[in-house]
Amino acid sequence: MSIWWSLHLRREPASVPLARRLLIGTMETAGVDPEVSYDLSVALSEACANAVEHGGDGVRTGCSEAYRVTAYLDGEKCRIEVADSGPGFTTAQEPRPARSDAEHGRGLCLIRELADHVHIGGKPGRGGTVVSFDKILKWKKDPSLLTA
């Protein structure tokens, strides 16, 4: 089975749970194991929260006040990409892991813990950051998509 969707969201905190609920609903309907769905939804929430907080620069002209979330469920893997239009950063500038008791700065660490593969990079020729992560899927025995 192959499913994909893409959202263009405003950089507002209310967009984060919207993206998370859409991902959970898609995975539940497709029959993905709830634990895997939960891990990916937390990782997505962290990536979206980073895009909302850091994904724009009001000073730069042409800056978008939106970000994009794309999810691909294809065969045994789910890939999620969150792309923003912020100033971006190079690998040398990538934030250092936060302390476990810190209130901020743990998002990328959580994404790395919850996903099987993570890539963080800039958008070629433009500003912004793309956080891409994937996870091997496990399936429930009776997916609702097959029984509908």
The biggest sheet amounts to: 5 strands, antiparallel
Radius of gyration: 16 Å
Strand order of the largest sheet: 1-2-3-5-4
Query: What is the first-to-last residue Cα distance?
Result: 15 Å
Question: Helix segment count?
Answer: 4
The quaternary organization reads as single chain
The fraction of residues assigned to DSSP E strands is 25-35%
Shape: globular
Global structural class = alpha+beta
Task: Describe this entry's structure for a reader.
With 148 residues, this protein is α+β, with helices and mostly antiparallel strands. The chain is built from four helices and five strands. Strands 1-2-3-5-4 form a five-stranded antiparallel beta sheet, covered by helices on one side. The longest helix is centred in the first third of the chain and has 21 residues, at 34-54. The chain is globular. The mean pLDDT is 84.
Task: For the structure shown, list the relevant keywords.
148 residues, alpha+beta, five-stranded antiparallel β-sheet, 5 strands, 33% helix
Q: What's the short story on this structure?
A:
The chain is of the alpha+beta class and 148 residues long. It is 33% helix and 26% strand.
